[in-house]
Design a protein that fits this description.
It is a single chain. The chain has 4 helices and 18 strands. The strands form 3 sheets. Strands 3, 4, 8, 10, 11, 12, 16 and 17 form an 8-stranded antiparallel beta sheet that branches. Helix 1 crosses helix 4. The N terminus and C terminus are likely disordered.
């Protein structure tokens, strides 16, 4: 079945429109039997308590997210701006400060990608520093109060004149660091760690030409741009603490619930620079799209029984009781 998800939210960004429309097209194909199997597997993970008495109950975490500096552009004029927190291109509108570089201006304009931590107030939410997201994640807790949270990534997708150089590909690097809170640690600081887990997000800005799209796009509005992650980075990325193995799974957070990654075609993966079998989502032209990433830590792998059902993982998690979102 196909689901077009439109969510209107007020993001904590000074530099973009105060009312943001988040548009993600998600295509999910699986039988009801598959959905039930996924939900049962996730519920089983959430129910684990005494089977492994020595499990680490929670982890302090830090997530650092920044551009890798591996941006490629077409030839052309205009102004390209690149740093650890933002990449933008298009008309040189004379804006030398962070707050106005993504402002909506008449065609030809500017487009860009930005990373923000969404904490604090005022311009500090979207400054040029690479602030880490920090908090506490609970082992086997699949509620929105128990998962971990990363940064917000926004695609400011405006019309840009063909006279200007345009981004073609980019890469965002994230590093998750975990500090164990072992059993018996009652409110004190985490005393062991960190365990460091890297993962990457690949991006492709596609040509806006009918007949060239490698992903599904709205009629008359080609072509959707591509965010991709290697599948092995998304589901059950394992690490060992003591004698136990733990698993990190990553997903997008949408509004008050969980979004889904879709399995992308080999052509879409190649366009973004990801491996075959990658997963991700696409963004629509002439819209601003913001996505925050979340993660879980479990003591058993989350089982997705069929290769094509990864998109159902978040739906299964949501059905397991994810009804509240933690606020820092």
């Amino acid at each position: 079945m196909a689901r077009d998800l439109l969510i209107h939210r007020r993001p904590a960004f000074e530099s973009i429109e105060p009312a943001l429309t988040l548009s993600m097209e998600m295509t999910m194909k699986a039988s009801r039997h598959s959905i039930a199997r996924i939900a049962a597997a996730v519920a089983a993970v959430g129910a684990m308590t005494g089977a492994q008495a020595a499990l680490v109950p929670s982890w302090d975490y830090s997530v650092t997210t920044q551009f890798a500096g591996l941006n490629t552009f077409t030839s052309g004029g205009g102004l390209q701006m690149q740093d650890a927190r933002q990449v933008s291109w298009g008309q040189d509108n004379g804006a030398g400060n962070w707050g106005s570089i993504f402002q909506q201006i008449p065609n030809p304009g500017r487009s860009g990608l930005s990373i923000a931590d969404g904490t604090g107030g005022g311009a500090g939410q979207n400054d040029r520093t690479v602030d880490a997201q920090t908090g506490n994640v609970v082992t086997n807790d699949l509620t929105l109060a128990g998962i971990g949270y990363g940064a917000w990534i926004t695609h400011h997708n405006n019309v840009v004149s063909g006279d200007y150089a345009t981004l073609t590909t980019s890469r965002i690097n994230s590093t998750l660091s975990l500090w164990a809170n072992p059993p018996g640690n009652t409110g004190g600081p985490a005393d062991t760690g960190p365990t460091t887990i890297p993962f990457n997000i690949f991006f492709a800005e596609t040509p806006n030409q009918e007949g060239t799209c490698v992903v599904a796009s709205p009629a008359g509005n080609p072509c959707n741009d591509i965010f991709a992650m290697n599948a092995l980075d998304v589901l059950n990325k394992s690490f060992t603490y003591g004698s136990d193995t733990y698993y990190v799974s990553i997903f997008p957070i949408v509004g008050a619930g969980l979004g889904s990654f879709i399995l992308l075609s080999d052509a879409a993966c190649a366009a973004a620079g990801a491996n075959k079998g990658c997963v991700g989502f696409t963004t629509i032209e002439n819209q601003h799209t913001t996505v925050q990433f979340g993660f879980t830590v479990t003591a058993q792998p989350v089982v997705v029984p069929e290769p094509g059902t990864l998109a159902l993982l978040a739906s299964a998690l949501l059905g397991a009781g994810l009804v509240r979102r933690r606020r820092a």
